[in-house]
Amino acid sequence: MANPFSHLDDQRLMELYNDGDNMAFEVIYYRYKDTVYSYLSKRVLDKNLVEDIYQNVFIKFHKSRHLYNSKHLLIKWIYVITRSVLLDTVKKKKV
After folding, report:
1. What are the residues whose beta carbons fall under 8 Å from the beta carbon of 9, sequence distance 6 or more?
2. Which string of DSSP letters, residue by residue, matches the chain?
3. Which candidate in 35, 70, 85, 92 could, as Cys together with 11 as Cys, close a disulfide (CB 3.0–4.6 Å)?
4. Euclidean distance between the first and final Cα of the chain, in Å?
5. What global pTM score does this model have?
6. pLDDT in tens, 54-77
7. Which residues of 37-67 are buried (b: 16+ CB within 10 A; e: fewer)?
């Protein structure tokens, strides 16, 4: 069964997600998961580390979803989170 929110734009999905609708997150996740993974894979050689960072990106996304500003494209915000988690991991592990 298709997700009933799959046709919505990112800003509307974030509104729904912030209101507690997890189906909206599911659409966002499936819309951008490959992009995030590809970004990380091009920058980190260790696949296990890529997996860890990838999971942490979406954890941070979830925890900070209330900070999203609809003036900005969601993908740019996701990239900011991804880059931040990547840099934090590199600093911690000295990769």
Report:
1. none
2. ---TTTTS-HHHHHHHHHTT-HHHHHHHHHHHHHHHHHHHHTT---HHHHHHHHHHHHHHHHHTGGG--TTS-HHHHHHHHHHHHHHHHHHHHT-
3. 70
4. 42
5. 0.89
6. 999 999 999 999 999 989 999 999
7. bebbeeebeeeebbebbbebbbeebeeeeee
